[in-house]
Amino acid sequence: MDKLGISIIGLGSASLPHARALLDLAGEAEVIWAATRSQARADTFSGQFPFPTTTDTEKAIHDPRVAAVLVLTPPASHLEVAEQCLSAGRHVLVEKPLELTVARGERLVEAGRRAGRQLGVMLQHRFRPASLRLRGLLESGELGAVQAASMTIPWWRPQSYYDEPGRGTMARDGGGVLMTQAIHTLDLFRSLVGISAITAAEVRTTALHRMETEDYAAALLRTGNGAPGTLLATTAFPPGHPERIEIIAANGAASLLGGSLLVAYADGRRETMDAEGPTGSGANIMDFPHDAHRGVLLNFFQACRTGSGLAISGEDALATQRVIDAILAKAKEQKN
Description:
single chain, alpha/beta, 14 strands, about 35% helix
């Protein structure tokens, strides 16, 4: 099997778990170029990984050996960079979120459709082993119908995190805790039990941070089958704790704590899976394993080769972004 030629565009901190996963997937894909406009970042990256670097992004996109591009630039640039890649006939996977706004995300999804190329999104929490196991239990019906569900993201980011240019701004990130941190858990929750409505919400910036956007969000919601659900997300909970999803079902209850799973059935049976590592919930934002990134990338590479469906497509990621918009809209409505 020929390796899939890929380029990476953007060599900031988000590129690190991608690059580690690509080392593991060396039999599947070959990194032709790792590109950034910053020579300093290129030098730092090349000191960590054995991939060719360049500051010429045009070359990285148009090199005939390249079949797919990982767009790991800030969210505000995803549309323009990905459109350029798609126009060149390349498959594209973008770092979350898909784009700053739903409208720009819709343009990007349409660009992928017109180009006839795969458009994937890195929302890797779906590929944690515990997440996959819980999905299997729900889809098989072993847990029974969902009766209620909740998600809690008690993370921490120090003020120094938001002091970096663009962090927590609408112009670069498109939002605060919902778009940048909680989006992973929210996406996983939606993929597991669905979200059909937001019935109440409140968002605010706490006294722990000076920033443009929200560091706290709470919402009441309805799952896909109409069962009640709740959300609490913040980056103002020092020192930061693993995110949690809890599901009450007809036959028992399941708790996802970071990458660990506990299932307690009403008949007394129990099932556990241990976490694969930390979740980046604290001040060290890259403190998590790259295994789930590897799963997303392998699925993306297989889809590029065979035309099979993506586990996390641009359209799928848009559905999660629409939920975020609905939470913010409901909070604004109730505030007024």
